[in-house]
Amino acid sequence: MKSAHNNQGAIAEVISASITGVVAESWQGQGADGLPSCARPRFGSFLRCQSQDDGISVLSVVYDVVTGPLDANHRPAALQMSREQLKLEQPHIFALLRTEIHALTIGYRLDDRIYQHLPPRPPEVHDFVYPLTDAEVQEVTENLDFLSLVPAVQAVPSDELLAAVVREADRARNNDLQFLVRAGKALTQLFRDDYDRLVSVLKKMKPES
Fold first, then answer.
1. 33: which residues sit within 8 A by CB, 6+ positions away?
2. Which domain holds residue 189?
3. Of 84, 106, 10, whose CA–CA distance to 52 is shortest?
């Protein structure tokens, strides 16, 4: 039985997993307005799925966040009301929604060592999911070999995800020009046979001005 303190900082729970990716359901809590609220991590942000049985932490990046009904009997419908009106008149409808986080596996941590290739096994259903701290993101992205795994994503344009992942890693470093140069070199190697695609990704990964 997992002790209660181990879920501190977790935002979601694995509901489906494979070697290459994970789907997690975001935990619902109470927002500042008293209504149900849940985490919706940023596109390209970094997560870890913490095993409850062994020391493996599977590392991943978010490529989609989907909010929808709990089941087929509670499908939302257009009500022509503002969100504020809905909160006042029909607050219960927010409890009938759930948010799924879809993430691509980019590596794993075992015995304080980070491996930037697919793990020996996927996370378990009901493992807890945590956002990486800035320090953890810096550590995970010190080596950029994992970028070669990102183009495998089919659900969203992989170039957009590559650029978002670099932006998130740069954000954790408070806009580090040297890191962006390293990332640019890594992408140049990745797309050495596709100049137009390389230029497109490089343009998207620039930090916001």
1. 87
2. 4-204
3. 10
Asked whether residue 1 carries a pLDDT value surpassing 70, the answer given is: no
How many structural domains comprise the chain?
1
- Specify if 197 maps to a domain: yes
Q: What pairs with residue 193 in β-bridges? A: none
CA torsion through residues 10, 50, 123, 168, sign: positive
Q: Which of 19, 40, 41, 25 is closest to 149 using CA atoms?
A: 19
pLDDT value of position 209: 46
Percent of the chain topping pLDDT 90: 65
Judge whether residue 101 has pLDDT over 90. Answer: yes
- Residue 109's closest CA among 148, 128, 136, 131? 136
Would residue 209 count as lying in a domain?
A: no
Q: Examine residue 18 and state whether it is found in any structural domain, yes or no.
A: yes
Among 65-69, 129-133, 159-163, the minimum mean pLDDT is found in 65-69
As a whole number of angstroms, the distance between CA 18 and CA 6 comes to 23
| Rama region for 46: left / alpha / beta (φ>0; ψ in -120 to 50; rest) | beta
Residue 153 lies in a domain: yes
